[in-house]
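INPUT
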Amino acid sequence: MKRYLITACLLLYVALAAAQNKSPQSYKVFYKDGMKKMDGDYTVYQKDNHYYLEIPDDALGKDVLVMGYIKRGYSAAVSKSSGIIRFSKGINNSLNVVRIRFSEGASGDINGDMEQVLKASGLQPVNYGYPVVATGKKEHSYIIDISRQLLEGGDWFPFPDITFLSHPDPERSVVEDIQTNEKSVRFTVERSQTDYNKDFLTGRDMDLANTYEVELLLQQLPDEKMPRKLAEKESPFETFTFMDYGRAAYTARKTSFIHKWNINNKIGVALDPNIPGFFRKYIEKGVLAWNEAFGSEVLKIVKDQALSPGRILINWGNTNTTPKIATVEHPETGEILTARINVTEAVTSQLMLRYLVQCGMIDNRIVKDIRNAAVQGEIMQWLITKAVGEALGLRANLSGSYAYTTTQLRNPAWMKTHRFSASIMDDLEFNYVVQPEDGIPAAALMPGIGEADIAAIRWAYGNGPMPVFLPEDSLSPITQHYDLASDKIMAATLAIKNLQRIFPLLDTISTQLDGTEDLFYSNGSLYGAALVSYEKYCMDVAALIGGASRKPAGIGVEKIKTDAATEKQALAFLQQYAFSGPADWIKVNGTPQGRIVRVQEAFIHMQMNILKSLIDIRKLDEVADVNELFGFIDRNVFHDFNKDKVLTTQDRNLQLTFVYNLSQAAYKANISGGLNDANTLLHFYFIETMKKIDELANTHPDMLSRENFRLMKMKAAREFFTKIKA
Amino acid sequence: MLHAAPLALSAQSVDSIPAVESLIKPGTVQHKGMCNIFVQDGRYLMEVPDSIYGRDILSAITIVQGAALVERPPDKKYGYAGDAVFERVIRFEKAGKRLNIVQPVFQNANDSTTIYYKVANDKILPVLLSFPIKAQSDHSVLIDFTDVLTGDGDLFALKGAKKELGLGSMDANKSAILSIRCFPGNMNFRSLRTYGPGENKTSSAWEVGASWILLPEQPMPQRFADNRVGYFTVTVRDYDHYADHPRAIQLAARWDLRPKAADEQRYLAGELVEPEHPIVFYIDRNTPAYLLPYFIKGVNAWQAAFEKAGFKNAIYALPEPTNQDTSYAMEDVRFSYISYKASPIPNAYGPHVCDPRSGQIISSRVAVFHNVMDLVQRWYFSMCAATDTAARRYPLSHEVMGRLVQGVITHEVGHTLGLRHNFGGSAWYEVDSIRKPAYVAKYGFGASIMDYMRFNYTAQPEDHMPDTLLMPGIGVYDKFAIEWGYRYLPQFTTPKATSDSLEHWVTQQRKDIRLRFGTESDLMDPRYQSEDVGSDPVKASRLAIKNLQFTMQHFDEWMKSSESDPAHYRQQYRSLLGRYHDYILHVFREVSGRYNNREAKPEEGLLSYETLPRARQEAAFTFLEEYMLNYPQWLFDPVVMQKASFEFDRDGMEPFNISLSRLIMAYTQISDNLLVQPDGFSTKELFERLYTDIYSKSPVTTFNRELQRTLLIKALAIVETPSGFGNDVSVQLMGMIDKIAAKSKKELQTTSDLLIKAHWQSLADMIRIWEKGDASALATSK
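OUTPUT
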């Protein structure tokens, strides 16, 4: 190619904005008397209320973690803006900052070297540009003003999602401490702001001030990056994805990699000094329990309280019902850089009640003392282990509790070598299938790290094979919440037996209540807590009917439906425990505190939930024997439309409510919008039912029942027949 | 022509303008060329020579480095390095003490003897930009164009592609001019542009190249398009050649190929000569090395076609020059380029930049997305695994993939030469012929690579077709089209005379049926379909399905090597299924379509449309009954389905329902056809046969139930639409609905299975709801 070139010259890059940055001051001009200097790899300068940061030339292009978290104040937040930035020399005397955006890459070389191709269309935008105020004393270093970053949040350390810390007043913000360490600077800053809002105590609208102490960290990360860990299938760890041009031949696919720690340098876990001494030992045990899974002392308790890379900080406070976990990850490698867990004693309160009604007959400590400290400590230990599991990157593993049979869970020898769930990352309560006669020790009633957790850790952090993991599927009996065992009908039967045993004692135990307990989720009493568990056991069985699970099989997926025999057993269970009315042992009228226990109402509530599950349009076509199912409903809700049957108020209530729900369900999936097996079945059953109701509305001998059937017709007409238009 | 001029100019004196030399300070950075550019005190000054006033300048924008984006939506094909994203033509005009940039209007209005000449030329050219003249010399003026250069406009930045790229506002603080290069006939400006969030939701940074070139002073001779030869076109209004009835005429888009002056006589004597300016494509230096030879072959394949037009070495590809070669720049609109893009889009495209005055193609930027390889390997497997053992290998060898991509390149380069899709390219070859290796070796299996005819899926294993003959190549139509567009015809002095001569030539040539052009916008003609081969869709699809059956028999065995990549296994199986449905769709138009010959000239003696023979319609419907209305058990092997995570109810039924719906919805075409072919396939037959085929089967399987439901739902949807009122379509459907109602009621009485009962009940109730307008009729036990 020969072309006459007149001139070709690169220009000095000049920003297109009208206003141009001033040239940087010399260090001599910048660094004057009265200016404080804190030496470090990133030196900080302070003059009055102005703060400056010196970025060395060799830090340009390096990964720098910027992270803020609330140290003191009513919040557990790690700033959502925490992440990785890179400095670069910008145009027009500025220093640029890029927040890493990573959505495309090549994790292998099967398609050759794709890096240049990716680079050709992978220009990272500059997120922020800051005027270089001065050059540093060291040659080629850049001093920028970071006052706004510290006092207001700025671009690096804002807390935009914390309402009362989203716009701090710089006049009231104070930098309390600055520490320069190796490749890092840590600032402790008090930020205040005022919002015109309703005062909780007086109910008046007024100016309300809020002050938080936040810790802000700027830490350059090591050059050597943690290798990514590929998640070829569904992974027990949280994942991130990018369009991967290096893994499969001739194609780019979204590929998942897991979030994990770089455990070359152990994981330090710092415990808040405010953690009450009593809980401290349980929390420590809960943390260190994971070392068994790692097979070495990967987690260690450290004294330094600062949140920093390689560190988990456990704070006491700022949470109520469950521990709160926040992590910061590297967007390119998935490395979990740091994590924070917030916990208080309040996270155990609901579980103490559950433990009482589920395991009280096995562990007498809770019967004697519903606030038993040791039990509370053990629950805390479990919750911390689970929280640390989440901080280690583990996902909720809802199939963990499905791994074992009730026979295994009741076998003392077997339980010596196993926990009752294969994974502590399942939503668990306690080993409620154990019977008093089984001889299982109380320690085995609490969740602990299971074999699925160990397999997951050894895969992610070692060389173990990738374990099978089932993601949550609300229609799968395998991945239900708070359930237990693979033979669910037996599990529920055993659990109800335990409830039956504890129920007579609840009257006495209730005398221990002093009014400070939160019984909101227990309908106001220990009986309520037992009834909540009772309903849950029945719902676990209802989930079997029409349930279908998809499990990995070879390179594909196998769909497993509940077989007809199991469904039949499940219906028999429901008939016995849910639709035959409350057993005598469960019928109590009131609590020692004078509270009325509405057992019948609770049963109607449970029955309706079960019926909703049975006619769920998403699984109706998976039911093995629909005749059996519809027959069950006819029998248990409508008494087979027998007009000689004398109906009770409860019967009428159930029938009317069910018809109302059925009409709505049939309308939502109505046939004029399209046809499929599930909605034709529902339609058919609805129409057949309404025909029978129509007849009873005219022929039932009891006037109240007749009127009730008429009412059902009206509800069905309003919710279905007159609503549907061609 | 008159030009709009700002009023402010009128009262000033030209004498008050300083001299250029007096304004330019010593040491100022200068770039000299087509215009001289001075960078002085942070301002950009352009010295515009008087000689380019009135000259048409093409300004084109190219992405030099694309932005990192969080997500690349599959419908957004632009945003990568090498993309030409905007171009426009401008012209400098002097107006007193200002220099304007105006938007030219292009028309054929040069003949002052025509009656519309005066009015055609009495137009005000819109002023796009206006600059005060800062200084002048005896041959130039100096303007300050800093604001235009640095602002967000379409001459230097990405404003012209803002919507396509999903950009917000430009952030001037994060944008910069990177370089300026000036040459005698062109200028290149490179800049960094940062845009805030727009449709993209995130900010983005781009390296942008702006290229300005002077268009030829004398435009290339126009060639009026002939709609019997598929060329892209540009439109101009013509007052010269149709003086009494001015009209918009289409000019074929084509490169300016002509022999060197010294070779002209030899050319005219029939000797092959090299063109004065050959077409050169540069191949992206980031293209994987194993693909480079195939990219080059894909381009060079067109040389044979140009030889028909009298040129040798008319087109070729070269590796992209290195960064050190300062005479080359990606953004320079004079250079053609094939870029290789890291993109999940399974596609490629071949655009071109045109001179709007003549249709001259200035250059082209072909894009090849990485995942087009995924697409072609799926196609090749699903169509040719039965006949080419290499197609079964995972991954395909570089050699096979190279040849597949070579075909893609040749097709896309065909577009850059001006050629449109010719969906008739595959229509003229007998199926029996394209199964014979000797025939295919001589003629190919289609007339045009500009068709989407993919691969020769009719060849059977026993045909022993060599693998090289399974892939398409440049065909007889392509050579004919190139000759039409590129034959140098200096003997004609006007485009009209050229056009008249070529029109006659085309008429003669088209006696060879293979040279007929089929537009992709024809949705009726069974000959003009995408993805098909052969002149008989029924025969071709039967053979193709036979190959699919063979592939399915061995699928699990052949896929052993891909079991380490379950996603690949899943994908390949779904590709087979997709292909099965494609083969079914190819047959549809044999039932409902008709042949269109609208483009033919009267002297060709072709009817403007022809219906299909009844026997063909019959054969096609029989095919559909066999393959669309019967469950193909062999295609749904439980072992394969499990490995492919495929569930028939969830994943497999929908395409059958869609196809059935499409067939029913073809009632309008079938009705129309009946008006001119009373003995043709009728809607009555369509509905009766569908009813019999579908409702004679027991609804014990999902497949049968779903077809029964779909037929009823579509019938209910059509029966009340006005388009169904004509030709008794609605009443025919009423009859069918009555039959379904009666059958449902009857079956309801005799069925004991609850699911089947529910099925019949729902069909009957659906009809009752439709009849009554609501569901109230269902609320009774009577």
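end of record. Chain A touches chain B through 88 residues (CB under 8 Å).
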